[in-house]
Amino acid sequence: MNIFRLAGDMTHLFSVLVLLLKIHTIKSCAGVSLKTQELYALVFAARYLDIFTNYISLYNTVMKLIFLGSSFSIVWYMRYHKIVRRSYDKDQDTFRHYFLILPCLLLALLINEKFTFKEVMWTFSLYLEAVAILPQLVLLQRTRNIDNLTGQYVFLLGAYRALYILNWVYRYFTEPHFVHWITWVSGLVQTLLYADFFYYYFQSWKNNQKLHLPA
Amino acid sequence: LDKILYHDEL
After folding, report:
1. Average pLDDT, stretch A104-129?
2. Per CB distance under 8 Å, which residues of A are interface residues toward B?
3. Measured between alpha carbons, how far is residue A59 from residues A4, A63, A161, A170 in Å?
4. At what angle do helices A134-142 and A148-174 cross, to 10 degrees?
């Protein structure tokens, strides 16, 4: 494992911890999109179908369990926790996330590396992860006062994707036959979706102002 | 080696 991959995984882990911290200690999920969180739970469920059959390393298995456990518990908190769910901006979080799932599934059935159930589900999870942030970005645009933790959560998620691209560049030059077009293209699309957010995040940081995305 | 199915990334 290279430094970019490790840094990417750690950034991903921190993003989840920041979100859980907000939900668990402040008992608030204001500004967080339940739609995006549900999509992530689905992404991990589809991708980690091989968790008990394809052993790679202890690190790998533990991280998979953390991402599965955290994503489902975040969804649970936002839907059912009697205090947390009151802070959910239901009227603002209107993105039709079901409309993302079907096209991703169809695309995975058409474009995949191997037509098997596990491989199609893996590919589906890559396509879905690429667009899963969209409901969150739309919600951020509608939120007048984005609190620091929510801004940091999205920033860390974007940083994780950027680091994964550096990881692929590194692996491409250091490993023989390391070519994964599906992973790379969907990963690149995913990272580009953050470009706009990054721009405004750094602007607000530079000018020491609160983060605000223009409509 | 079946590189494709060796999904070692998260």
Report:
1. 96
2. 5, 9, 12, 50, 54, 56, 60, 63-64, 67, 113-114, 119, 122, 164, 167, 177-178, 180, 183
3. 16, 6, 19, 20
4. 150
d(CA A194, CA A188): 10
Q: What is the pLDDT of residues A8-33, one digit of tens each?
A: 999 999 999 999 999 999 999 999 99
DSSP tag of A13: H
Tokens describing residue B7: 């999904």
Token digits of residue A22: 């907000």
Domain segments of chain A: what residues?
3-206
Cβ burial A110-146 (10 Å sphere, 16+ → b, else e): eebbeeeebbbbbbbbbbbbbbbbbbbbbbbbebeeb
What CA–CA distance (Å, rounded) separates A103 from A99?
7
CB A140 within 8 A of CB A154: yes
pLDDT, one tens digit per residue, over A31-47 is 999 999 999 999 999 99
Let me know how long chain A is. 215
To the nearest whole Å, the CA of A204 is away from the closest chain B CA by: 31
